[in-house]
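Morning, I've got a small favour to ask if you have a moment. I owe you a coffee for this, so here goes:

…
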Amino acid sequence: MPVLETSAGTLIVIAVLGYLLGSIPFGVLVTKVMGLGDLRKIGSGNIGATNVLRTGNKGAALATLLLDGGKGAAAVLIARAVTGNEDAAQLAGLAAFLGHLFPAWLGFKGGKGVATFLGTLLALAWPVGIAACLTWLVTAVVSRISSLSALVAATLSVAWAAVLGQGHVIYLIVILGTLVFWKHLPNIERLKAGTEPRIGGKG
Protein backbone atom coordinates (compact mmCIF):
# COMPACT_ATOMS: atom_id res chain seq x y z
CA MET A 1 0.00 0.00 0.00
CA PRO A 2 1.46 3.40 -0.96
CA VAL A 3 2.36 6.03 1.62
CA LEU A 4 -0.30 8.76 1.85
CA GLU A 5 1.52 11.86 0.63
CA THR A 6 -1.06 13.82 -1.35
CA SER A 7 -3.40 16.31 0.32
CA ALA A 8 -7.02 15.30 0.83
CA GLY A 9 -8.29 18.08 -1.44
CA THR A 10 -6.03 17.01 -4.28
CA LEU A 11 -7.05 13.38 -3.87
CA ILE A 12 -10.72 14.33 -4.08
CA VAL A 13 -10.16 16.23 -7.33
CA ILE A 14 -8.14 13.33 -8.75
CA ALA A 15 -10.85 10.84 -7.78
CA VAL A 16 -13.56 12.89 -9.48
CA LEU A 17 -11.56 13.45 -12.67
CA GLY A 18 -10.47 9.81 -12.74
CA TYR A 19 -14.08 8.69 -12.44
CA LEU A 20 -15.20 11.02 -15.23
CA LEU A 21 -12.44 9.75 -17.52
CA GLY A 22 -13.20 6.14 -16.72
CA SER A 23 -16.91 6.61 -17.25
CA ILE A 24 -16.54 7.49 -20.94
CA PRO A 25 -18.37 4.56 -22.64
CA PHE A 26 -16.01 4.05 -25.57
CA GLY A 27 -17.72 0.85 -26.71
CA VAL A 28 -21.03 2.65 -27.11
CA LEU A 29 -19.38 5.63 -28.81
CA VAL A 30 -17.26 3.55 -31.20
CA THR A 31 -20.15 1.38 -32.36
CA LYS A 32 -22.37 4.43 -32.80
CA VAL A 33 -19.77 6.36 -34.81
CA MET A 34 -19.14 3.30 -37.00
CA GLY A 35 -22.85 2.79 -37.62
CA LEU A 36 -23.01 -0.57 -35.86
CA GLY A 37 -26.09 0.20 -33.78
CA ASP A 38 -26.71 0.52 -30.05
CA LEU A 39 -24.21 -1.77 -28.36
CA ARG A 40 -26.52 -2.17 -25.37
CA LYS A 41 -28.99 -3.96 -27.63
CA ILE A 42 -26.43 -6.30 -29.21
CA GLY A 43 -25.29 -9.67 -27.86
CA SER A 44 -24.96 -9.55 -24.09
CA GLY A 45 -25.65 -5.81 -23.98
CA ASN A 46 -22.29 -5.22 -22.31
CA ILE A 47 -20.33 -2.13 -23.36
CA GLY A 48 -16.92 -3.82 -23.52
CA ALA A 49 -14.74 -5.00 -26.39
CA THR A 50 -15.90 -8.63 -26.24
CA ASN A 51 -19.46 -7.59 -26.98
CA VAL A 52 -18.32 -5.12 -29.64
CA LEU A 53 -16.68 -8.11 -31.35
CA ARG A 54 -20.14 -9.67 -31.64
CA THR A 55 -21.01 -6.96 -34.16
CA GLY A 56 -18.54 -8.70 -36.48
CA ASN A 57 -16.31 -5.62 -36.67
CA LYS A 58 -12.86 -6.54 -35.34
CA GLY A 59 -11.56 -3.00 -35.82
CA ALA A 60 -14.28 -1.60 -33.58
CA ALA A 61 -13.54 -4.24 -30.96
CA LEU A 62 -9.82 -3.47 -31.02
CA ALA A 63 -10.48 0.27 -30.77
CA THR A 64 -12.75 -0.30 -27.78
CA LEU A 65 -10.18 -2.55 -26.12
CA LEU A 66 -7.41 0.02 -26.51
CA LEU A 67 -9.54 2.97 -25.47
CA ASP A 68 -10.98 1.23 -22.40
CA GLY A 69 -7.51 0.13 -21.36
CA GLY A 70 -6.08 3.52 -22.23
CA LYS A 71 -8.42 5.48 -20.00
CA GLY A 72 -7.30 3.51 -16.95
CA ALA A 73 -3.66 3.99 -17.87
CA ALA A 74 -4.16 7.67 -18.66
CA ALA A 75 -5.78 8.35 -15.29
CA VAL A 76 -2.82 6.79 -13.49
CA LEU A 77 -0.15 8.50 -15.59
CA ILE A 78 -1.77 11.94 -15.38
CA ALA A 79 -2.19 11.72 -11.60
CA ARG A 80 1.40 10.57 -11.20
CA ALA A 81 2.72 13.32 -13.46
CA VAL A 82 0.77 16.05 -11.67
CA THR A 83 1.47 14.99 -8.08
CA GLY A 84 4.50 12.74 -8.32
CA ASN A 85 2.85 10.47 -5.75
CA GLU A 86 1.81 6.84 -5.92
CA ASP A 87 -1.19 7.29 -3.63
CA ALA A 88 -2.69 9.68 -6.16
CA ALA A 89 -1.84 7.36 -9.05
CA GLN A 90 -3.52 4.38 -7.40
CA LEU A 91 -6.61 6.39 -6.46
CA ALA A 92 -6.89 7.68 -10.02
CA GLY A 93 -6.73 4.11 -11.34
CA LEU A 94 -9.38 2.93 -8.91
CA ALA A 95 -11.64 5.87 -9.74
CA ALA A 96 -11.30 5.27 -13.49
CA PHE A 97 -12.10 1.60 -12.98
CA LEU A 98 -15.21 2.46 -10.96
CA GLY A 99 -16.19 4.96 -13.64
CA HIS A 100 -16.12 2.23 -16.25
CA LEU A 101 -18.17 -0.13 -14.09
CA PHE A 102 -20.67 2.50 -12.99
CA PRO A 103 -20.83 5.35 -15.55
CA ALA A 104 -23.26 8.12 -14.63
CA TRP A 105 -24.04 8.66 -18.33
CA LEU A 106 -25.50 5.15 -18.67
CA GLY A 107 -27.48 4.99 -15.45
CA PHE A 108 -24.48 3.50 -13.64
CA LYS A 109 -24.73 0.36 -15.81
CA GLY A 110 -21.28 -0.09 -17.28
CA GLY A 111 -18.86 -2.75 -18.39
CA LYS A 112 -17.03 -5.51 -16.56
CA GLY A 113 -13.77 -3.63 -16.39
CA VAL A 114 -11.31 -6.13 -17.82
CA ALA A 115 -9.56 -3.84 -20.31
CA THR A 116 -9.54 -0.96 -17.82
CA PHE A 117 -8.15 -3.31 -15.16
CA LEU A 118 -5.29 -4.34 -17.45
CA GLY A 119 -4.58 -0.79 -18.60
CA THR A 120 -4.48 0.43 -15.03
CA LEU A 121 -2.02 -2.31 -14.06
CA LEU A 122 0.23 -1.54 -17.02
CA ALA A 123 0.51 2.09 -15.91
CA LEU A 124 0.84 1.40 -12.18
CA ALA A 125 3.31 -1.49 -12.32
CA TRP A 126 4.16 -2.44 -15.88
CA PRO A 127 5.75 -5.84 -15.08
CA VAL A 128 2.52 -6.91 -13.39
CA GLY A 129 0.46 -5.44 -16.21
CA ILE A 130 2.41 -7.34 -18.86
CA ALA A 131 2.16 -10.58 -16.88
CA ALA A 132 -1.59 -10.09 -16.47
CA CYS A 133 -2.06 -9.35 -20.17
CA LEU A 134 -0.08 -12.46 -21.13
CA THR A 135 -2.11 -14.51 -18.65
CA TRP A 136 -5.32 -13.28 -20.29
CA LEU A 137 -3.95 -13.96 -23.77
CA VAL A 138 -2.73 -17.49 -23.06
CA THR A 139 -5.98 -18.43 -21.33
CA ALA A 140 -7.98 -16.93 -24.20
CA VAL A 141 -6.01 -18.84 -26.82
CA VAL A 142 -6.46 -22.11 -24.94
CA SER A 143 -10.08 -21.72 -23.81
CA ARG A 144 -11.52 -19.24 -26.32
CA ILE A 145 -13.59 -17.84 -23.43
CA SER A 146 -13.12 -14.17 -22.60
CA SER A 147 -14.70 -14.28 -19.13
CA LEU A 148 -12.55 -17.21 -18.02
CA SER A 149 -9.46 -15.39 -19.27
CA ALA A 150 -10.43 -12.32 -17.28
CA LEU A 151 -11.01 -14.31 -14.10
CA VAL A 152 -7.70 -16.16 -14.39
CA ALA A 153 -5.80 -12.92 -15.11
CA ALA A 154 -7.44 -11.12 -12.17
CA THR A 155 -6.68 -14.02 -9.84
CA LEU A 156 -3.04 -14.45 -10.83
CA SER A 157 -2.31 -10.71 -10.84
CA VAL A 158 -1.91 -10.79 -7.05
CA ALA A 159 0.66 -13.56 -7.37
CA TRP A 160 2.43 -11.72 -10.18
CA ALA A 161 2.68 -8.59 -8.02
CA ALA A 162 4.22 -10.58 -5.18
CA VAL A 163 6.66 -12.50 -7.38
CA LEU A 164 7.73 -9.42 -9.36
CA GLY A 165 8.39 -7.30 -6.27
CA GLN A 166 5.44 -4.97 -6.76
CA GLY A 167 3.86 -5.39 -3.35
CA HIS A 168 2.70 -1.76 -3.22
CA VAL A 169 -0.10 -2.54 -5.70
CA ILE A 170 -1.36 -5.79 -4.12
CA TYR A 171 -4.12 -4.18 -2.06
CA LEU A 172 -5.45 -2.30 -5.09
CA ILE A 173 -5.29 -5.44 -7.22
CA VAL A 174 -7.34 -7.32 -4.62
CA ILE A 175 -10.00 -4.58 -4.73
CA LEU A 176 -10.08 -4.44 -8.53
CA GLY A 177 -9.99 -8.22 -8.87
CA THR A 178 -12.87 -8.63 -6.43
CA LEU A 179 -14.95 -6.21 -8.49
CA VAL A 180 -14.03 -8.09 -11.68
CA PHE A 181 -15.30 -11.30 -10.10
CA TRP A 182 -18.47 -9.60 -8.88
CA LYS A 183 -19.24 -8.25 -12.34
CA HIS A 184 -18.63 -11.71 -13.78
CA LEU A 185 -20.98 -13.64 -11.45
CA PRO A 186 -23.44 -14.41 -14.29
CA ASN A 187 -20.51 -15.58 -16.43
CA ILE A 188 -19.30 -17.83 -13.62
CA GLU A 189 -22.73 -19.47 -13.47
CA ARG A 190 -22.64 -20.05 -17.24
CA LEU A 191 -19.10 -21.42 -16.99
CA LYS A 192 -20.33 -23.92 -14.41
CA ALA A 193 -23.23 -24.85 -16.68
CA GLY A 194 -21.02 -25.09 -19.77
CA THR A 195 -23.07 -22.47 -21.62
CA GLU A 196 -20.65 -19.53 -21.63
CA PRO A 197 -20.16 -18.27 -25.23
CA ARG A 198 -16.73 -18.35 -26.79
CA ILE A 199 -14.81 -15.40 -28.18
CA GLY A 200 -16.33 -14.29 -31.47
CA GLY A 201 -19.60 -16.12 -30.81
CA LYS A 202 -22.98 -14.44 -30.87
CA GLY A 203 -23.50 -14.77 -27.14
Observations:
- Residues 16 and 95 are 7 Å apart (CA to CA).
- The chain has one domain: 8-193.
